[in-house]
């Protein structure tokens, strides 16, 4: 590699800010002369410009917008938005206790995602930049989108394709995607079985499906040891802790969703604990 190319490469590694531009130019000057200075400085400038544009919105704003845009994208995946999917989006807004202004924004974003020319990557790449070191927030985002895909009970091939693209853009491994999806499927089934259980209060009811779902929510099998179950429970409770998520950039409006998730995890653990007779 010649001096000029080396200077340019170093310039490309420059971080955000004026310091980055100056540093790129400085290194370029000493590694490739005046041409290296120009190339290094320009490269640093364009990287800075891209990152500033990508992260112009606060993490909370990026998360909020992406959440509802992508919901709309998934809902329209099969060509039309079903009433079940619309109802789920409304339910999420209601659970978030959005004020009228926030609700209007959420609806606008949802409708934006439904458009045929909606660019998923354009919305998710800036989000990935700010959430790269905030894995719990990425997990929560994926969980919300999986819930949309499963709103009608099944995930279509078109919806799965979008989920896979989301995972690629947010840097989830195939295994991580499978694990999160399995937990969401279990949670979906748990809610349904729990509803049926309440409906048949006082009557004979087979609670085994509920117990199986509870294991699924924690991401462990029914043969897991007490230590393994407790480890999974503690990890998920920590990962979904509302205060920790808000500190990492979760929109304040979504605090209730995080609380509901921890309640779901706790409920699953309590069911397993009682079934096994643990103290």
UniProtKB/TrEMBL annotation:
Any one GO MF annotation of this record: protein-folding chaperone binding
Transmembrane residue ranges: 20-47
Start and end residues of each J domain: 213-279
Segments in the Periplasmic topological domain: 1-21
Pfam family, one: TerB
Coiled coil, from the record: none
Residues exposed to the Cytoplasmic side: 46-279
Keyword Nucleotide-binding: no
Record bears the keyword Nucleotide-binding: no
Topological relation to the membrane, as annotated: Single-pass type III membrane protein
Listed Gene3D superfamilies: DnaJ domain, TerB-like
GO cellular component: plasma membrane
Principal subcellular localisation of the protein: membrane
UniProt-annotated location(s): Cell inner membrane
Source species, domain of life: Bacteria
This protein's UniProt keywords: Cell inner membrane, Cell membrane, Chaperone, Membrane, Transmembrane, Transmembrane helix
Family annotation (SMART domains): DnaJ (SM00271)
Function comment: Regulatory DnaK co-chaperone. Direct interaction between DnaK and DjlA is needed for the induction of the wcaABCDE operon, involved in the synthesis of a colanic acid polysaccharide capsule, possibly through activation of the RcsB/RcsC phosphotransfer signaling pathway. The colanic acid capsule may help the bacterium survive conditions outside the host.
Quaternary structure note: Homodimer.
Free-text domain note: The transmembrane domain is a dimerization domain.
UniProt protein name: Co-chaperone protein DjlA
Origin species: Nitrincola tapanii
Phylogenetic lineage: Bacteria, Pseudomonadati, Pseudomonadota, Gammaproteobacteria, Oceanospirillales
Gene this chain is encoded by: djlA
